[in-house]
């Protein structure tokens, strides 16, 4: 499922959106449907973790599916700010 589709699902179904600190990820649920994903917050935290390990880059799956570049813009700012 594309990130833009997650946003559509959330809006159309009045889904509950939860950020899970333990797994460093977000999930949404409505009725019997549950969707787990990375959002701007989780991706930013993972960038900080990668930098703390001394990694010199990161990989984000299916960047072209980002909704209006929300995640990629946020993580680019985080990478530059922390580099």
From TrEMBL:
Domain GH18: 1-82
Gene Ontology cellular component list: extracellular region
GO BP of this protein: carbohydrate metabolic process; chitin catabolic process
Coiled coil: none
Source species of the chain: Citrus unshiu
Any GO MF annotation of the entry: chitinase activity
Name the UniProt record assigns to this protein: GH18 domain-containing protein
One Pfam family hit: Glyco_hydro_18
């Amino acid at each position: 499922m594309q990130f833009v589709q997650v946003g559509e699902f959330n809006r159309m179904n009045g889904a509950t959106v939860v950020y899970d600190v333990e797994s460093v990820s977000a999930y949404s649920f409505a009725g019997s449907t549950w969707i787990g994903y990375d959002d701007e917050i989780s991706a930013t935290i993972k960038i900080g973790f990668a930098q703390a390990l001394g990694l010199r880059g990161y990989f984000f799956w299916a960047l072209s599916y980002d909704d209006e570049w929300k995640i990629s813009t946020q993580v680019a700012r985080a990478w530059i700010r922390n580099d």
